[in-house]
Structure formats: structure tokens, C-alpha cells
Write a structure and sequence with these properties.
With 130 residues, this protein is of the alpha+beta class. 32% of the residues lie in helices and 39% in strands. A hairpin with a 3-residue loop joins strand 4 and strand 5. Helix 1 crosses helix 2. The longest helix is centred in the middle third of the chain and has 18 residues.
Length: 130
């Protein structure tokens, strides 16, 4: 299972490390200690990223901004079919969905909690690991 430091989690959440630490201290997502470092498991971070994005959508003031074409984030859902697959990535407040082959998902090792970057070109979403 993929694990992330508080700093890595903060980057994926689009917040400072201090904010991520405060959220963890408040029990908003579970962490575990290894020596002096705190880690969050990928599936727990993926669930929390979805929660934060939902909160941001409720608080949205209606203004929109343009976004660049690379969205680093975390895989929040993988749906496998016989030949095709659907992968969802939460990148800060952005939820991106990519349809690709099952073989590609398996080769890339995409699973809930894995860090990935969605690259959007026209109407296509491509996924890169880490």
C-alpha cells in the first residue's frame, strides 16, 4: 500500500504542510508514526482528498480560474471492466476521470491511494505516475 509523508499529503491536497499537520492533529485523517515522521496511507488520503474537494465545492463563490494541463493528485477510484477501465483522480479541488484500457491500468499499477498526474489535452485525459 502506498503511504505519504505529511509534506507529500499537503502537496496533493494543495495546502501547506502546517495545514495538513493541523488537519491530522484534529483527526480529519488518520496518520501513523515511523520514528519522527508521520505517514498517511494512500486510501485514507484519497478519501480525505474527495472530502476536501466536496467541502470546497460547497464553499465555491462562483468565480472560476483557468487551469494548466497537468493535474498532480491521487487516485480515488478505479473501475475495471473486461477490456476498459475508468480511473478517477482528485487533484486539489479538481476531479478528473480517464477512460483507458484495463491493461494500461494494470501495467501502471493504478489503485486507490496511488499518486498520479492527469494530463488533459483537448478532450483526452492521460495519466502519469507520481
Amino acid at each position: 500500500m502506498e503511504s505519504y509523508t505529511i509534506g507529500q499529503a499537503a502537496t496533493l491536497l494543495g495546502v501547506s504542510s502546517d495545514t495538513a499537520r493541523r488537519w491530522a492533529d484534529a483527526g480529519r485523517f488518520p496518520t501513523r508514526r515511523e520514528g519522527h515522521r508521520r505517514f498517511v496511507d494512500g486510501p485514507d488520503l484519497a478519501a480525505f482528498c474527495v472530502e476536501v474537494a466536496a467541502e470546497a465545492a460547497v464553499e465555491d463563490d462562483g468565480r472560476s480560474t483557468s487551469a494548466r494541463n497537468a493535474f498532480p493528485g491521487i487516485v480515488t477510484a478505479v473501475t475495471l471492466g473486461e477490456v476498459s477501465a475508468q480511473v478517477e483522480i482528485q487533484a486539489g479541488p479538481h476531479r478528473l476521470v480517464s477512460l483507458l484500457t484495463r491493461e494500461a491500468v494494470e501495467e501502471l499499477g493504478l489503485a486507490v491511494g496511488v499518486e498520479a498526474t492527469a494530463r488533459v489535452k483537448s478532450t483526452s485525459v492521460h495519466i502519469d505516475l507520481g
